[in-house]
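Repro:
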Amino acid sequence: MTLNPIQPASRQRYEQLEHTADLALRIYGQDLRELFINAAFAMFSQLADIEHMATPISRQVAVEGIDYESLLVNWLNELLYLHDAKREIYAAFDIHELSPYQLKATVRGDRNQDIRSIIKGATYHGLAIVQTAEGYTATVVFDV
């Protein structure tokens, strides 16, 4: 799998949903790997303009969970932790291993760009990964 795969114009990565206080995103993927990549891309797209960002910095990421939902929350929160601790924004995501209990990936990014919002964390509120005829969807609510 290549870093930051180009999406066909007819396929949407994510959409922002109406939410009273927090940020809610519906994520799409043809498979679970693409869903997790698109979730990370969607989250960082809310923080900065990452569409054409250079990605000279590379980090290895490993997270664990008890199922795909907890793994997704742990993945997104680990990326937010790295964003805060290293002062970096990530725009490219290569998942090497993905099971219900473990994810290993390489993420690429750069020092903080112009940050347009702050995300405190991904939550379990209303979280469900659903298999559809087109692949998978997940709705993720972020504490902002």
